[in-house]
């Protein structure tokens, strides 16, 4: 199965701890996107990365959140000093090229973050 | 500001009925995708429409992109319990390649 992989699938953190979410894109895909989803809502764009570059982080909160996509290894979404409002499902998607009309984003199964 | 409005938000029907869900916007999109998401899983792509007026069929599902590329509809014929799920539309604009805007979805329940 060469789909988008995310781990962990479920993550529980206490307020003030750090959360690290990992995403391995599909083979051959060099574009990664992170989205956040609250219950019974659609996905909200957070950040778009290519290898070693952040292309668009307009949906990312200015504090506590960061993302990277290193030359080797998975993309990481990092949330420092988590608060209860960070509890959500975080989805990663990947594409071969830039999205929009030129390519398709394929989604991973998500990481469900619960902050106690 | 919600760029993509989906309606209805919730829909519960009996097996065998037909239904249509809508995705509307005041913005023009270069492409629009429909996804289906089951509880605890990520969205799965159903179709991408690109051309205004385009109609695509996927078995019992018919997708239409509006002539002005601002809206879309998904019609399901003879719904089955297996169609139950959250249907999401997502649009991309040429000036913002890579960033998709999602609607809040339509939660469909098909009762046997």
Brief overview, please?
The complex is a heterodimer of chains A (116) and B (112). Chain A is mainly beta and 116 residues long. Chain A has no helices and 11 strands.
Topology:
The complex is a heterodimer of chains A (116) and B (112).
Chain A: E1 5-7, E2 10-13, E3 19-24, E4 31-37, E5 43-50, E6 53-56, E7 65-68, E8 75-79, E9 88-95, E10 106-107, E11 111-115
Parallel strand pairs in A: 2-11
Antiparallel strand pairs in A: 1-3, 3-8, 4-5, 4-9, 5-6, 7-8, 9-10, 9-11
Chain B: E1 5-7, E2 10-14, E3 19-24, E4 31-37, E5 44-49, E6 55-58, E7 61-65, E8 71-76, E9 85-92, E10 100-102, E11 106-111
Q: What labels describe this entry?
A:
heterodimer, A: 116 residues, mainly beta, 7-stranded mixed beta sheet, 4-stranded antiparallel beta sheet, 11 strands, 48% strand, B: 112 residues, 6-stranded mixed beta sheet, 5-stranded antiparallel beta sheet, 0% helix, globular
Describe the structure.
The complex is a heterodimer of chains A (116) and B (112). Chain A is mostly beta strands and 116 residues long. Chain A has strands spanning 5-7, 10-13, 19-24, 31-37, 43-50, 53-56, 65-68, 75-79, 88-95, 106-107, 111-115. In chain A, strands 2, 4, 5, 6, 9, 10 and 11 form a seven-stranded mixed sheet that branches. Chain A has a four-stranded antiparallel sheet with strand order 1-3-8-7, with no helix packed on it. With 112 residues, chain B is an all-beta fold. The mean pLDDT of chain B is 91.
């Amino acid at each position: 199965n060469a789909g988008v992989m995310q781990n962990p699938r479920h993550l529980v953190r206490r307020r003030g701890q750090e959360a690290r979410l990992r995403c391995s894109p599909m083979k051959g895909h060099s574009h990664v996107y992170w989205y956040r989803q609250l219950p019974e809502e659609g996905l909200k764009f957070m950040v778009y990365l290519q290898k070693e570059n952040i292309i668009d982080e307009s949906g990312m909160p200015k504090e506590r959140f960061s993302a990277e996509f290193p030359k080797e290894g998975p993309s990481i979404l990092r949330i420092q000093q988590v608060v209860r409002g960070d509890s959500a499902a975080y989805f990663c998607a990947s594409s071969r090229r830039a999205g929009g009309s030129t390519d398709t984003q394929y989604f991973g199964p998500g990481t469900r973050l619960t902050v106690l | 500001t919600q760029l993509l409005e989906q309606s209805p938000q919730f829909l519960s029907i009996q097996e065998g009925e037909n239904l249509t869900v809508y995705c509307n916007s005041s913005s023009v999109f270069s492409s629009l995708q429909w996804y289906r998401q089951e509880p605890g899983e990520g969205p799965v792509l159903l179709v991408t429409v690109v051309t205004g007026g385009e109609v695509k069929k996927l078995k019992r599902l018919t997708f239409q992109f509006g002539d002005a590329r601002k809206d879309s509809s998904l019609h399901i014929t003879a719904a089955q319990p297996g169609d139950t799920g959250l249907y999401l539309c997502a649009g991309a604009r040429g000036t913002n390649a890579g960033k998709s805007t999602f609607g809040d979805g339509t939660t469909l329940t098909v009762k046997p």
